[in-house]
Amino acid sequence: MPYYPDEVVNEVRDANDIVDIVSQYVHLKQQGGRYFGLCPFHNEKTPSFSVTRDKQLFYCFGCGAGGDVLKFVQRYDNMTFPEALKSLADRAGIALPEQQMTQEQRARADRRTQLLEINKEAGKYFYHLMRTRRGRQAYDYFAGRGLSKEVMQQFGLGYSDKYSDDLYRYLRQKGYRDDLLKDSGLVTIDERRGGRDKFWNRAMFPIMDANAKVIAFGGRVMGDGEPKYLNSPETDIFNKSRTLYGLHLAKRTRQKFFILCEGYMDVIALHQAGFDNAVASLGTAFTEGHAALVRRYVSKVCLSYDSDGAGRKAALRAIPILREAGISCKVINMQPHKDPDEFIKALGADAYRERIDQAENSFLYRIRMLEEEFDLGDPEGKSRFAESVAERILEFPEEIERNNYIDAIAGRYGMSVDGLRAMVRHAAAKGVQGTGRPVRAPAETRRREDIRRTRGDLRSQKLLLRWLTEEPPLYERISRYVEPEDFDEGVYAVVAGEVFRQLAAKEEVRPAEILSRFASDEEAQEASSIFFEEVKGMEDDEAEKKKALREIILRLRHDRLSKLSESLDPADAQGYQHLIDEKKKLEELEKTDFLGK
Q: Which contacts (CB < 8 Å, 24+ apart) does range 82-90 have?
């Protein structure tokens, strides 16, 4: 595994302008010195995702995602750091030096990479085992479901042996330690019984990320065991709420929409029938994370969930999530058959294609499902149904869109257009939004506001570091009063240390390089927020800026005294005298205009 020194990483980072890279994935619009677009990492309707060319950073004011160009590629394409570095180096025509890691460097290597290696080995093992005499039962199961050899190979289908420690012994022979195997989700470690496989005697479905890397597995039991289907637990490389089965193939489709299913076999059957745009969530309800993933590739979805009650409920949950993400949605009617696999076996691909063409508008589908809750033959039931419809029509912010649905629904259910329109106005007057709940700020807006309501002391530290980055001459005026140690421990202290070091050396502050010191996404995001701290209202008002700066410095000095006081040993006479001296300095500082003009 190659190791790359800091100077190589910096060369690759400097050669890839972050605005150019992000623009390949996100539509950006320039506003002043920044570029804004819809965040690719969470659902939003109003752009809060910001990119700056001067700092070479991105930051989302909504979800807090942030970092440099390497962090963006890692997160967007689900890559490891070496993979992202290699991708950007190739783009810039930079040849990376190949250098083998020392034992110490390997010990510090990305744990995620090792987990990917383990899953890859497991996938290969399951794949080959199914093609031996021991895996015949699983092979016959897949063949009996109508799958060809080519499709079995395309999806990497396999078999886990009937012996419950078979994979464990195989991976141990490959040199993987128990702690890594346990973290992979493939093995459980018992002090008394040793290692035991998570999957045994099951037909295996490798679960791959968008880059076709095996990150987890699903297994269907052979025989009458329970549970019938079993998925890997969540790990450092597998988050089921942000993973779609079949995406590594569907993302290459020429279709302009995805077919969203419920299960492995539905996706595989659709791909075999020529529908290469099918994906599925993994044993969990459709989430905002899934919607954000879909939106990276398409803006339209056709739901092909089971036609039973559970499938209808799942569709009704998924539709508003897709709408909130800005994804247009239709619903495929598969009756009288249960799921896509069953439908295609019975009626064929052409009939399924016709159902896609006839797919129902998702809002009208919801109204049709709502209809089942009321007796439309009873006047009171029909009135209550109309009230519920009016409340849901309020989900549409534009009047023209509301009127279009009023016309369509009134025509379908024999209602008066004017009457339904009046009911919509009445619902709006009552303060109802969409589903009968009082109007309130959308969840995303509330979350954004919560993120911005940072504690006053941290915001002060952010402002000071931001100003130092924007106006390096400020360092000479404040360095005698403030030290990096005055900032909060952790991220703030590290950023302050680097900013002060670079300014003391008369260097330009390099935010992207500073962010590379943080290994975790959480720390990198927090550090990114420092360089994006808003200072509205003070850009051209030097008096206000000076006033705010003075207050920040005094606050930091007060915090320094508090820390000294809390950590002081009562028997430490010298420390006590130092505390008294610091208090006197602060009192004198408060009485003077120490920043001058």
A: 82/1, 82/2, 82/4, 82/110, 82/113, 85/4, 85/9, 85/12, 88/12, 88/13, 88/15, 88/16, 88/21, 89/12, 89/15
Strand 360-361 relative to strand 214-221, pairing? unpaired
Q: Spell out the alpha helix ranges (H) of 145-258.
A: 149-154, 166-173, 178-183, 247-250
Asked whether the predicted pLDDT for residue 418 surpasses 50, the reply is yes
**Do 402 and 393 form a contact (C-beta atoms < 8 A)?**
yes
Are 448 and 48 a contacting pair, CB within 8 Å? yes
Angle among Cα 54, 60, 62 to the nearest 5 degrees reads 150
Looking up tokens 């003075």 gives 550
For the cut 80, the answer to whether the pLDDT of residue 281 exceeds it is yes
Q: What is the dihedral of CA 467, 471, 472, 475, to 10 degrees?
A: -50
List, in sequence order, the alpha helices (H) in 281-398: 288-295, 309-324, 340-347, 349-357, 362-371, 379-393
Distance CA 66, CA 63 (A): 9
Tell me the C-alpha distance between 10 and 130, whole Å: 46
204's tokens: 């295996």
- Can you name the residues that pair with 196 across neighbouring β-strands? 188
CA 541 – CA 558 distance, rounded (Å): 26
Cβ atoms within 10 Å of 411's Cβ, excluding its own? 10
Does the domain at 247-366 match CATH 3.40.1360.10? Answer given as yes
Using alpha carbons, list the distances in angstroms from residue 517 to 10, 490, 521. Answer: 12, 12, 11
- Which residues of the chain does CATH 1.10.860 include? 454-591
Beta sheet of 278-280, edge-to-edge order: 278-280, 258-261, 300-303, 328-331, 360-361
Please tell me whether the overall predicted TM-score, pTM, comes out greater than 0.70 for this model. no
Query: Of the candidates 89, 84, 14, which has an alpha carbon nearest to the alpha carbon of residue 53?
Result: 14
Q: How far is residue 130's CA from residue 136's CA, in Å, rounded to a whole number?
A: 6
Rg of the chain on CA atoms, in Å: 29
SS3 69: helix
Domain with CATH 3.40.1360.10 in the chain: 247-366
Q: How many residues does the chain have?
A: 597
DSSP annotation of 232: P
Residue 268, pLDDT score: 97
Supply angle C-alpha 460, 461, 467, rounded to 5: 90
Q: Each residue of 192-229: pLDDT tens digit?
A: 778 999 999 999 999 998 878 999 999 999 988 889 99
Read off the tokens for 497: 């240390």
CA angle 486, 492, 496 (to 5 degrees): 65
Which CATH number fits the domain 454-591, given the four candidates 1.10.860, 3.90.1170, 1.25.40, 1.10.3470?
1.10.860
What's phi and psi for 301, nearest 5 deg? -140, 145
Give Cα 186 to chain centroid, integer Å: 24
Phi, psi angles (nearest 5°) of residue 516? -65, -10
Which architecture does CATH list for 111-238? Alpha-Beta Complex (3.90)
Query: In this structure, are residues 57 and 16 in contact, taking their beta carbons and an 8 Å threshold?
Result: no
Mean of the per-residue pLDDT values of the chain: 85
